[in-house]
Amino acid sequence: MSARLTVPESSRVIAMGSTESGKSYLLKKFCLTRCPRAVIVDPMGEHSADVPAGTKLYRVRTLDELRRTLQRAPREGSRWRVVALIPASFGPEIAKMLLPEVVEDHNAYSYHVRGMALYIEELDKFAPTFAPEETQGLWRRGRHVGLSVHATTQRPHGVSRSVTAMAGWWIICQTHEPADVDYLAKVLPNEAMACVESLPWQWAVLFSPRTRVWYLLNREHKVMRWGDPSHAHAHASAHVTPAPARAPNAAPASALGD
User: Fold this and answer.
1) Whole-structure pTM value
2) Staple 192 to which of 21, 50, 51, 188, CB 3.0 to 4.6 Å?
3) pLDDT in tens, 129-151
4) Cβ 45 vs Cβ 85: under 8 Å
């Protein structure tokens, strides 16, 4: 009788904000650094120089190269990163490689390699407003096979609403574009939105669309304020002790899991 693998834990996190607001840094710190295996959709090649010790780096420029490398990487080690220097608009094709239409144990790539992350720069191009079902499936079905999806965007209003709704957490940094500010104002609790509108550089608000819990983090990632739907108001930092860096299930800057 064959042994059955345990589905690894996974998470879905979106970091949003203007250029140089700190969104990519926070997403890498809170999420990517914990992932021993990852595919990074990075058209600008900004992730190639930032690889943890003991992790094998692959760089690909075409979908065919990506497909071949995904077959090769697990045979050459258990810790690897594939930086895909291809446009984010190839989202549906990448989705089909990682997550077949019918998810079963034997045909889901992330299950086969015992868990991995897909990290996406320019999510508004990868999963735009009318993203196809294949792309949305990464968020909807990936958790069943150990696939984490972490993404950044400068234009949250341009991302598929299904995708933003299925994210476990949002990391919101300084945002100035009026359409994005209007979109966030429709979603966030009033106290959280007030914090977003006055965010200093490299501060952030963590927000859970599902529970509507939120945390205001300063530049050192200390929780300064937080809000919970079971309370009528936001709380000051004196009432919060952030956990070491994992992300918010039990604590904000530490357990960005679902």
Assistant:
1) 0.86
2) 188
3) 999 998 999 998 888 888 999 99
4) yes
